[in-house]
Amino acid sequence: MSRTIDQQIKSTYFALRVGAAAIGFVFPLLLWGGGKIAGITLPNSMSAYYWATPAHLCPCGENPDHSCITKGSEVDLSMTASMKEKSLVPGTMRNWFVGLLFAIGTLLYVNQGHSRKEDVALNFAGLFALGIALVPMPWDCYHHSFSLHGFCAVSFFLCIAFVSAVCSQDTLALIKNSKARAWYRKIYVGLSVAMIASPVAAYVFNFITSQNSYVFWAELFGIYAFAAYWCVKTKEMSGPDIQKIVDEKKDQPAI
Questions:
Q1: What backbone phi and psi angles, to 5 degrees, belong to 215?
Q2: How many Å apart are CA 230 and CA 173, to the nearest integer?
Q3: pTM, full prediction
């Protein structure tokens, strides 16, 4: 049985939202699982999958612990010619890393928000996701306090956190049940806090600990908060109160 135009539009809209959430949930697992199959141990961040290979986990991979940390807390700034040559080798999971970021960025950009400010925030989030893919993390033995890659990553999470904390309130007023409305509001605020805390924690872990996997898990926490937001928001938008309003507007005669 064929769908009506309204049903087709609605199903496409929700499919885009669910697709963004699904990619968010799969993204870190695919990088980790694919890397593990290829022989890559967990690197110091998801962005490192752009460069990492089984034989070269980081620019200072010759260190026994593959940590780029030597002599206590001092950073090994030496980089031999062979290390520089290896740093140019494409990462084993690079195509997956870039491809999934392009998919997320495109879905966010084409997704239409409930308000103009949400549209702008989603458009910027989509562009920043592309920036994360197109501008790789610095691949040397230095600790960088700033990089364009890091700026895009932090800005991406800030845009989505803004959508979760601020823009999500626009549709909550349409929910008649006060308890449900309060529940959604708490969830959105909590997820926005998680999305802000994730890049902050990753930045701190990068400087205070040699346990590089902490950075990976901090990033995973933020990405899963992003994916969870899309799941919860999709559930809210498919609720009976909002659907009733949509149906009422659809039945109104055109002027």
A1: -65, -45
A2: 18
A3: 0.78
